[in-house]
Structures are given as structure tokens and as C-alpha cells.
Design brief:
The chain has helices spanning 2-14, 30-42, 89-101, 135-149, 171-174, 177-181, 198-204, 208-212, 229-243, 247-256, 285-296, 309-316, 395-402, and strands at 58-61, 104-111, 114-120, 129-131, 264-267, 281-284, 300-301, 304-305, 330-331, 338-339, 349-350, 361-365, 369-374, 379-385. It is α+β, with helices and mostly antiparallel strands. The chain has one domain: DD-peptidase/beta-lactamase superfamily (Beta-lactamase), CATH 3.40.710.10. The strands form four sheets. It has a six-stranded antiparallel sheet, sandwiched between helices. Strands 1-5-6-4 form a four-stranded antiparallel sheet. A hairpin with a 2-residue loop joins β7 (300-301) and β8. The protein is globular.
Length: 405
């Protein structure tokens, strides 16, 4: 029963549910099968977003010595005391009501250079960390942009084998980094199976490199969008090799400290091993707001160009295989009433109405975990909460956009 629940939760939280089978070449070992079995037995299906200490081992991403402070909200008012009001009280009330109805834990809204809303459910505050799954993918893309700017990565058009030598001479190795950024490498997500399956060994096992090597190549490279966590895993490996640093250290140095974020944590496959690049960056709601502001401000934070503005523009542009996807980030336009994740993935996310602005980009994770960035409105929205199967992507941004003064 627990495994069936876990399969449904992971398929929902990671938006995957298709393709592949368990390897038959002696991998995984009995010990690896037992590890996954034991983790499945304690998997906190109903509290995964908040059970940030359930999984071990973890690695720390060091934050800034002094985090860039966000304005404090008045206890009786969802607006900071000193903020200039840019949203109507009705819009704020409606947004909070919607977040609460969806069992939200945190709702933050930044508009016109000020924090307009900072709302937490009982038991949560600005220091609470969350596991927001695929929102981490966008952070990986930002960290790669910093590596390109630093000359660590020459070009996104380089074959990925330049940075992952083990892939030399393979179909995957010949593809450019760009294909992996666009979820267009041809890799497809494995189907759920038993404790020895490639699917469960990826999420809960201890050898991500060996696992991802066994994912199926059943999509058409460069022209077919197939959302698969393996793409982000290869990007993370390339980044770590290119910089010669642990990912946690590069992320801290290149992104996390410059934006003024506090300490975060990563899930590893094993002690000293690989981070789970496609998910599992435990961070606070204010720090996710900082990530959104980095995109909003075209790569700048505290007056410093952390990531080139040209990289932010390229990330946010439509990719050839999917106009609703850029580089590890989603796009609100064109309108997709039932957004999908590729031919083999059953999950669909509704957006009943078109986004009220056509320049919305957003981080998508865990069935309703979101960071919406709306440059034309100078707005960032962070929503973190219980997984929602009926989350409507355009509803919350449109509520707030309609309330702009």
C-alpha cells in the first residue's frame, strides 16, 4: 500500500509516469534494493514538502554571512509597514484565501521593489525550509549561467561529453548542453516498478550515475520535448566537472551567497556522492523569492551582475521543442489550458485562463510549488504548500495582476 501511495506521490510531485524497466545486468545490488525498500517503508508521502530531515545524507549549501533582509510584515497586516502598497486589499485577501484553500504553507509577493505579502500558515515562518522538488532545476540552470560567464563552460553548444568524458562516443555525449537544458535530449523517464527498478533507484537509491545511464532514449533528440530528470542530472554533472568543485560549493559561491540567501541543504545519493540535481534543494520561502528576484532583475542582485542578463533572456525564451519551456524553466505563453510534460507523462496542469501578462516565467515543482516571475509587472510570487492535484497555474498570478494599482 505504501509503495502504491509513493508511486502516485512521486508521479505527481515529479510530473513523471512512464517508460523503462529494471536493469537485468546485476545492478542494482541486493544492498541497493534493500536500501530503497527501507526508504520506501518510511517515506512521508503526506508530508514530503515539509519533511526536510527525513532523507539522509544531506550536504549544506552555505549562505551569506548576513542574509539580505526582507522587510518584516506587521502582525495585523499582510503588508510590510514601510512598503508602498501596489496591490488592492481585495486582491491580497483573495490571493491569501486561495493559498489557504490550497493548504498553503507560505505565500510571498514582491512588487515594485517591496515585499507586498508575507503570509504563513500556523507552524511556518520565514526560517522554515521546504523540499520543493523540481524548482531546483531552475537553480541548476542559473548556476550553469554563472559558470559560462566565468569561462568554466565555453558554450551551451558544446557537446556534453566535453564536460562528461565518460559519454564520449555515445549518442548522449554528442548532444549539446543546450539539448539537456531544453529537456530535448531524447531521454525518457522510466516506468515505476519494484524496489530494483530504475525508477525507484533514481528517487531513493545510492548510485544516480549508474541509474541515469539506464534511462531509455526513446524520444527524438532536439525536436521532441520529453521532461526527464536525467537531463538535469547530466547538467549537474557537467557543471561540477567544469568548475572542479562540489556542486554545493559552486552554488554557494556563484548564486546563493551573492543573492543574500541563507543556508540551504541538498539530498545526496550517498555520503560525498551526487546531489539530486532535479529536486531536493531545501530552502526557505524568502530564499526562493530571492531566486525569483534574480531572474526578475536580469541576473543582478545587490547591484552585482550574478548571472549575465543575456543568460536570463536565453533561459526565458521559448525552446524549439516546446514554446512553454525555456532552459529548465516554464513559460506562461502561449496559453496551455492543460499543460503536459511529454508524450509518456500522464500528469496535466490546468490553466483555465491565459496569464494576464504574456511574459510570465515560473519555477514548477511538487504539484503546486511555484515561483512566478512577471517582469512587465515587476512582480515575483512564491507559493509553497501541500501538493495540490487541482492547482491552476494562472489563477493566483491573475488574481494579483488584476489587483495592481
Amino acid at each position: 500500500m505504501r509503495k502504491r501511495v509513493l508511486s502516485c506521490v512521486i508521479a505527481t510531485l515529479s510530473h513523471v509516469a512512464a517508460a523503462g524497466a529494471a536493469a537485468q545486468d546485476g545492478w542494482p545490488s541486493p544492498a541497493q534494493v534493500k536500501l530503497v525498500h527501507d526508504r520506501l517503508a518510511t517515506f512521508p508521502a503526506d508530508k514530503l514538502v515539509t519533511a526536510v530531515d527525513w532523507y539522509q545524507p544531506q550536504e549544506t549549501v552555505k549562505g551569506a554571512a548576513r542574509s539580505d533582509p526582507l522587510p518584516r510584515a506587521a502582525r495585523s497586516d499582510p503588508l510590510p509597514r514601510a512598503a508602498k502598497r501596489t496591490l488592492t486589499p481585495e486582491a491580497i485577501a483573495a490571493a491569501i484565501a486561495y493559498a489557504d484553500a490550497q493548504k498553503g504553507y507560505a505565500l510571498l509577493v514582491w512588487s515594485k521593489d517591496a515585499l507586498q505579502v508575507e503570509h504563513y500558515a500556523p507552524g511556518f515562518d520565514r526560517t522554515s525550509r521546504y523540499e520543493t522538488a523540481s524548482m531546483h532545476k531552475t537553480v541548476v540552470a542559473l548556476a550553469i549561467g554563472a559558470a559560462v560567464a566565468a569561462g568554466k563552460i565555453r558554450s551551451v553548444d558544446d557537446p556534453i561529453a566535453r564536460y562528461i568524458p565518460e559519454l564520449a562516443g555515445t549518442r548522449r555525449g554528442a548532444l549539446p548542453l543546450r539539448a539537456y537544458l531544453e529537456m530535448a535530449s531524447g531521454i525518457e523517464t522510466p516506468r515505476p516498478g519494484g524496489d530494483d527498478s530504475v525508477y525507484y533507484q533514481y528517487y531513493l537509491g545510492d548510485d544516480l550515475d549508474a541509474d541515469v545511464a539506464r534511462w531509455p532514449d526513446t524520444c527524438t533528440p532536439r525536436t521532441e520535448f520529453c521532461y526527464a530528470n536525467a537531463n538535469t542530472h547530466y547538467l549537474g554533472r557537467a557543471l561540477s566537472n567544469a568548475t572542479g568543485m562540489r556542486y554545493a560549493d559552486w552554488l554557494s559561491q556563484a548564486i546563493w551567497q551573492p543573492i543574500g540567501a541563507s543556508e540551504a541543504r541538498l539530498w545526496l545519493d550517498k555520503a560525498g556522492g551526487s546531489p539530486r540535481y532535479s529536486c531536493c534543494l531545501m530552502a526557505t520561502a524568502p530564499d526562493w523569492l530571492r531566486v525569483g528576484r534574480l531572474i526578475l532583475d536580469q541576473g543582478k542582485a545587490a547591484g552585482r551582475q550574478v548571472v549575465p542578463a543575456s543568460w536570463i533572456a536565453a533561459m526565458s525564451a521559448p525552446s524549439p521543442a516546446n514554446p512553454n519551456y525555456g532552459w529548465q524553466v516554464w513559460r506562461g505563453s502561449p496559453h496551455a489550458p492543460a499543460r503536459t510534460y511529454g508524450k509518456s507523462i500522464k500528469a496535466k496542469v490546468p490553466a483555465a485562463e491565459p496569464f494576464a501578462r504574456d511574459d510570465v516565467v515560473y519555477l514548477d515543482g511538487s504539484a503546486g510549488q511555484r515561483v512566478y516571475v512577471i517582469p512587465s509587472a515587476d512582480m515575483v510570487i512564491v507559493r509553497i504548500g501541500a501538493p495540490s492535484l487541482d492547482w491552476d497555474d494562472s489563477h493566483l498570478p491573475n488574481l494579483l495582476l488584476k489587483g495592481l494599482k
